[in-house]
Every structure is written in C-alpha cells, then in structure tokens.
Amino acid sequence: MKKLLIFLLAGFVSLPALAQMRCSALFSELLAASVSSQAAARDNRAVRTEQWDDVKVLVSQMTIYDRQVTVRRVERSELIRGRTLFAENLGGDDAFFVGLNSAGHMYLVANVYRYDGKLAFEKPQLNTRSSLLDRGLVVRIADPDGKIQDQIIAYFRQKGPPRSLDCAAGVCKLVSEAAGIELAQNVRQRVLPHELMRQLITQGVRGADGRRQQTQLFVIGNAEPQTVLQAAERVSRQYIRTATPYIAGAGLTTVGIIATFVNLFI
After folding, report:
1. Where does the UniProt annotation place the signal sequence (predicted)?
2. Which pLDDT band holds residue 53 (cuts at 50, 70, 90)?
C-alpha cells in the first residue's frame, strides 16, 4: 500500500513537469516558426533601395496572386512627414499612372491631368493641375516618347472626361478610346477595380502595336498590396448588391445586364 501511494504521488508530481516540458517544447516550436516566418518575410522584402527624383524607394519581391512581383514601396519616412506624392516624383515625364487607393477607388494620372471616374455614369472629376497619387497601389506604365499622355490629354480637350459605369470602367474607356490600348481583357476587369489592378500587376499592358509596355508597381503608404486589393473587392461587392435593384427598378438596364452583374460574384 505504501509503495502504491509513493507511485501515485510520484505520478501526480510528474504530470505538471511533463506538461511544462511539453508546453515549453511547443512554445519553442512556435517561436522558431515565428522567427523563421519573420526572417522569410524580411528576406522577401529587403532587397535594395532606389532613388526616384528626391524620393527614396524600397524594392522587394512579393507574392501577389501566386506570382512573384517586384514591388517598389515609398519609404514610410517620406510619408510620415505629411508629404504628398505626385507623378513627377516617380518619373511622370515619361509615363502615365493607374492607381487604386485604400478606399477601393481607381484613377488615372497623365502629366498634370488626373481623372477620377464616378459611379452610374455620374459626371466624372478631371483635375488639370494635379498629378496627386493617393496612398495605395500605383502602376507606372512607361510612355518614353510621351505619345500616350499626349493622346489622353487631347481626348480630354476634345471630348472631356468620359462618363462610365464606375471608376475602373472609366479608366479603361479613356485609355482605349484615347490611345487604342485595352487595359481590361474581360467584363470583370472592366468594371471591378481590384480585377483590373490584378490584370495590370500579373499580366502587364500591351500598347496599341501589341508590344508589351514596361510597368512598375508602387506601394504608397503602409498598407500591403493584398490588403488594398481585398478592400477594393469588398467595396465592389457592396456597390453591386446595393446598386443593381435600383438600376433595375429605374428601368435603366435589361435583364441581361443585371444577370451579368450577378454573375460577376457567382
């Protein structure tokens, strides 16, 4: 009996020790995994530094939509000081820009012209004295001879800013009609900002002559690319679900168009 009590007591004392050992081992595994993950993230990001005009940019490789993409991030210190960023800070003389901001809005900048399309064919906004780039994602599309920028500006002067279904559709319509360049390859990309940005990031842009244009992805601010894209997707879904019944009720569309909108998210 005495031996049994000693055995049970020893077992009772050893249980916390075993649990502590197991917890310690588990904690060590998690810590090692965390350190390994953080190291991998650092290795994935810290590559080199570039100087654009007077702006310092960090260049890294990042996986976006299962593709390795070169990402240029404007250093946080540049924005902490409250500085605003303009196209000319990122080589705007020989390029135009398509941006997707953190609110899910898409816009275009060419020279000192900034175009912001509106929803449901409302009058768009055109600023002829601003090349402001919002915080979020910006794709810089090379235009070495300035021809595309000239075509876009000439379009504005002759026809004004185009009305469209939404901001992404406006950007696509503008670049297509002004310069003969099709940014979108299907309906989803033409009306959904995050899908159009996905196309620009993963597939790039081809000029009117079919040749691939040089593109560069910039991140302005602290948000991660995936976070901006996901936010834009949520905004698009909310808009489609809210707007479709009103459009149908007003008799401004056909059943086929409504079905197309519904199918975008099925």
Report:
1. 1-19
2. confident
Q: How crowded is the C-beta side of 92, counted as CA atoms within 13 Å? A: 19
Q: Is 210 helix (H, G, I), strand (E, B) or coil?
A: coil
Establish if 29 belongs to a structural domain.
Answer: no
Asked if residue 14 belongs to a domain, the reply is: no
pLDDT digits (tens, 9 = 90+) for 179-203: 999 998 888 888 899 999 999 999 9
Does residue 31 lie within any of the structural domains? no
Is residue 1 a part of any domain in this protein? no
Q: How many domains does the chain divide into?
A: 1
173: Cβ contacts below 8 Å, ≥ 6 apart: 162, 164
pLDDT digits (tens, 9 = 90+) for 95-117: 999 999 999 999 999 999 999 99
Sequence-ordered list of residues with C-beta below 8 angstroms from that of 75, at least 6 positions apart, any chain: 55, 56, 57, 58
Q: Cβ neighbours of residue 58 under 8 Å, at least 6 residues apart?
A: 45, 46, 47, 48, 49, 50, 72, 73, 75
